[in-house]
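Deliverable D2.4 — example input (structure tokens):
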């Protein structure tokens, strides 16, 4: 059971998320993401589940360590996190999203204590080789809040069952586990050479939500 946390997203082009913690509540974040924290919050950096967990995070593009912030005081306290580059922050309420969401490499920012961060492999061989992000995605599981970051404007798309969308491989930020993710070759010699999109496009097929940047 993940901690129930309150939050607000601040800013426009370079957003941060400020999280309000009650006593004994906590949040886990990528190392170096913390911007500020108030008195009463204890910070602890570790592997978050042993050496194997640290190595798994490295495969997804994150650091070997993860930092936990737990409020040990009496009143409410706040801690804020931001990405290392300009962009937007996407709040994901995993409890309302079936308890699981997939995020591209380097996308994880922070999550409520009790949310698990693991690795997931793309189901299709072509997506792994040519998808621009490799075989490995980040899998967030639990029933709490998680936050991911991405560069530029964020677009949320809900795909109906069987509905497909073709996107640039670098524009896919996160997707529901019910969404099928594959790679398609761009047809036509001139399209492939002069279209400006490379040789491949990502194809996502519903049902489910996808986030694009």
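Example output (designed residues):
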């Amino acid at each position: 059971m993940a901690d129930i946390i309150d939050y607000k997203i601040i800013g426009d082009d370079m957003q941060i998320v400020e999280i309000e913690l009650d006593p004994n509540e906590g949040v886990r974040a990528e190392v170096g993401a913390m911007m500020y924290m108030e008195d009463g919050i204890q910070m602890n950096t570790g592997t978050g589940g042993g050496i194997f967990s640290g190595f798994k995070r490295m495969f997804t593009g994150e650091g070997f360590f993860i930092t936990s912030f737990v409020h040990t005081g009496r009143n409410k306290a706040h801690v804020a996190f931001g990405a290392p580059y300009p962009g937007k922050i996407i709040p994901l309420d995993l409890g309302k999203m079936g308890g699981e969401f997939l995020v591209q490499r380097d996308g994880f920012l922070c999550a409520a204590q009790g949310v698990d961060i693991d690795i997931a492999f793309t189901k299709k061989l072509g997506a792994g080789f040519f998808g621009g992000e490799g075989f490995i995605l980040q899998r967030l599981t639990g029933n709490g809040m998680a936050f991911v970051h991405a560069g530029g404007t964020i677009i949320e798309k809900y795909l109906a069952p069987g509905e497909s969308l073709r996107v640039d491989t670098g524009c896919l930020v996160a997707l529901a586990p019910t969404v099928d993710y594959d790679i398609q070759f761009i047809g036509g010699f001139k399209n492939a050479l002069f279209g400006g999109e490379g040789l491949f496009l990502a194809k996502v097929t519903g049902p489910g939500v996808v986030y694009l940047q």
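The mean pLDDT is 83.
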